[in-house]
Amino acid sequence: MxxxxxxxxxxxxxxxxxxxxxxxxxxxxxxxxDTSQPQRYFVVGDFEEAIAAYAAVTEQxxxxxxxxxxxxxxxxxxxxxxxxxxxxxxxxxAEKIYALLSTNFxxxxxxxxxxxxxxxxxSQRILECxxxxxxxxxxxxxxxxxxQKTLDSFRILPPxxxxxxxxxxGLLRIMxxxxxxxxxxxxRKDFVAAGKGYAxxxxxxxxxxxxxxxxxxxxxxxxxxxxxxxxxxTKEGLDQYRKGHLKEAIAIWQGLLEFDPENAEIRKAVExxxxxLEKLKKN
Length: 283
What we know:
Layout: H1 2-23, H2 36-43, H3 47-60, H4 65-87, H5 91-104, H6 119-143, H7 152-155, H8 159-162, H9 165-187, H10 191-211, H11 219-242, H12 246-259, H13 264-282
């Protein structure tokens, strides 16, 4: 009898223990999101890595409200950095940050409604930076002798912005400077550099026409410059070719193709001379 009572008592204790254990706290607390790495990226100004790191953490902890709030706060701070750069006229830095936010905006879907800005504002600010940088970037290309990239910063602007006085005046200054440099190159018989300059002036002359303003030269002046450079380089290449200087002839004609790439006659001449040069190397 005593044994049966003891067994019943033991079973009751065990059952009670199971109930208590099922109602008790979990074995260990859930880990909190670790945002130390994205925070470090943000502090040192590596905003691209900061955004990527936050995106990775939020994928691991979807719907974590404190984490999303922190992420959104950092994005607002990055936007503020861009605004500060813009206000201090550091348009290069501002454009890069606005563009970074614009590119990554789909990553902010979980909290974008709480942000103080959206893609339209970012696009507007990027365009404002490009307007202010247009002449500066054109001058950088001129200084580097990269005539073909000189007007890239103006080409990307909508026609209505080209008509703004501060933009159209800058465009005219650059076009006049490019014409002067092309004329100078022609005078010293650097026909490749001159040809590149004239080719850009000819192809981008319509940009000026959109502004309603006028240059000191007509479009056909650029066309005449191209013709002169084409004629001279064609002749120089033929002279070298007839002397058997195939390598030199090819180099001259390739220079011509840099500003006159659709010249089928010269392209064929380069192919022919190159084939002959290869045969000579094999013999």
